[in-house]
Design a protein that fits this description.
By secondary structure, the protein is an alpha+beta fold. It has helices at about 50-60, 80-85; strands at about 5-15, 15-30, 30-40, 65-75, 90-95, 105-110. Helix content is about 20%, strand content about 50%. InterPro entries: Acyl_CoA_acyltransferase, GNAT_dom.
């Protein structure tokens, strides 16, 4: 069976400048994944991340997602509270090694939509 990922990007613009971006996919018929959420440092805490996240979630629901997953870097003191405030629950840690041998710990979170 071949899995077709449907990439869903959203971009926040202010006077034609990119101030935020979010991207995600449908990884299985009913599962959405958030791959990236970035907001320019100068525009944090202005609701941009929340609105981008809501738009992605709406699109994933429209594509029949009933579950949503995200990976957050261990120690990310902005990302972890952001996702937990939206109902994500910690599921497991995932350790990977970079090409330079550096150990990175990703925290896997999920929620039911």
């Amino acid at each position: 069976m071949t899995i077709m990922w449907v990439y869903i990007p959203h971009i926040a613009l202010l006077n034609s400048d990119v101030v935020g971006v979010i991207g995600g996919v449908i990884t299985k018929p009913s599962v959405g994944e958030v791959f990236v959420l970035y907001v320019n440092e100068a525009y944090l805490y202005k609701g941009i991340g929340r609105r981008l996240f809501e738009a992605l979630t709406k699109d994933q629901k429209h594509k029949n997602a009933v579950e949503q997953w995200v990976s957050v870097q261990e120690g990310n003191q902005r990302g972890i509270p952001f996702y937990e405030a939206r109902g994500f629950l910690f599921q497991k840690s995932k350790i990977t090694l970079t090409e330079t041998g550096e150990k990175q710990v990703s925290l896997r979170y999920s929620r039911i939509l």
